[in-house]
Write a structure and sequence with these properties.
Blueprint (H helix, E strand, L loop, with lengths): L5 E8 L7 H13 L5 E5 L7 H4 L8 E3 L2 E3 L1 E4 L21 E5 L15 H13 L6 E7 L6 H13 L7 H4 L3 E9 L3 H16 L4 E12 L6 E2 L6 H8 L4 E8 H8 L9 H6 L17 H5 L5 H16 L5
Parallel strand pairs: 1-7, 1-8, 2-6, 2-7, 8-9, 9-11
Antiparallel strand pairs: 3-4, 5-6, 9-10
Helix pairs in contact: 1-11, 3-4
């Protein structure tokens, strides 16, 4: 059965491009994983799949199994003691994280995807029916901007393969379409487009779990102090006017930007300079690369405490307050 093992499906939507849906999706996934939930990310931004780059696995490839396509593992589940066991612990365990994206199926990351609507629709249906997720507490779906073919196909397929009724989940065995998280930036040009996305959710009977105001100010990489370079509060005002839950605001976090970029520039040093003084380490020598998994390095960012709160809000609204 499609989506076998998936318990809850959460969409990440925005009518505006460039507001950070993919980064919000990834950070929600990491935060939920750090609270012991097994998480999957489905990237259906077919013409601009960015999730492989964000998780640092651009060279990974999809494998075929008897149950369907196997998503790419970002990290495995781990207990507080560091072993892959289910031994009881007073500390929350880290859940697994897996990812599926069209980017993993392209020969080269620079290849352009030039598809008409019917082919996009077919690809999304295949993603929802032919991927073997296994036991997954939350499947987060990263969507493209707008309310076009991809969104219509996604809504139609999900409303067929899942249920929005929590009481019917146990009876039918279908995953629960828990709802959508709307992402916006504070500017009026963004909130006006996100209002259309909220209207899309109303027309397709998809519950709105909350609104996140992304890029709300700038977090200093040294002290974490937030400065409002442009504006702030537009997403909260929009949520209040539409009677939607406001989850919170997220400033631009340089540490998270450095995290997803990784150590791409570490190998660009000049070999001639290294040969001149091979045994001398200058103050400008790059630090040793951090080999910890992405999820553990994410703990060091200024954004993590905020998304930890968002994750708890999602769990509470979907599973109930006692689940947090």
């Amino acid at each position: 059965m499609p989506l076998t093992g998936v318990k809850n499906v959460v969409l990440v939507l925005s009518g505006k491009g460039g507001v950070g849906k993919s980064s919000v999706t990834l950070q929600l996934a990491l935060a939920l994983s750090l609270q012991g939930k097994s998480v999957g990310i489905l990237d259906i931004d077919l013409t601009g799949p960015s999730m492989p780059r964000l998780v640092g696995l651009e060279d990974a490839k999809i494998t075929q199994a008897p149950g369907g396509w196997m998503p790419v593992p970002v990290h495995e589940a781990e207990s507080a003691a560091g072993a892959d066991t289910s031994a009881p612990s007073t500390q929350p365990q880290r859940g697994s994280l897996r990812c599926m994206s069209l980017g993993f199926l392209l020969r080269d990351r620079g290849d352009a995807v030039i598809w008409r609507g019917p082919k996009k629709t077919a690809m999304i249906r295949q993603f929802l029916s032919d991927v073997f997720w296994g036991p997954t507490d939350y499947l987060l779906i990263d969507t493209p901007p707008g309310t076009s073919d991809e969104h219509i196909a996604l809504a139609e397929q999900l409303l067929t393969l899942s249920t929005t009724d929590a009481a019917a989940v146990a009876q039918t065995g279908l995953p629960r379409l828990a709802g959508a998280v709307l992402v916006t930036t504070p500017q009026a040009v963004a909130t006006s487009d996100v209002r259309k996305e909220a209207n899309f959710c109303v027309k397709t009977n998809i519950p709105v779990l909350g609104v996140i105001e992304n890029m709300s100010g700038y977090a200093c990489p040294c002290c974490g102090e937030v400065s409002n370079l442009f504006s702030s509060g537009g997403g909260q005002v929009m949520a209040q006017e539409l009677s939607l839950p406001f989850m919170g605001s997220v400033p631009i976090d340089v540490k998270f930007g450095e995290l997803v970029e990784g150590n791409m520039e570490a190998g660009d040093s000049d070999e001639e300079e290294e040969d001149e003084s091979p045994k001398t380490q200058s103050p400008d020598t790059p630090a040793e690369p951090d080999d910890r998994p992405l999820v553990e390095r994410y703990r060091d960012t200024w954004s993590y405490p905020r998304f930890k709160g968002f994750g708890r809000t999602l769990i509470s609204s979907i599973e109930g307050p006692t689940a947090v």
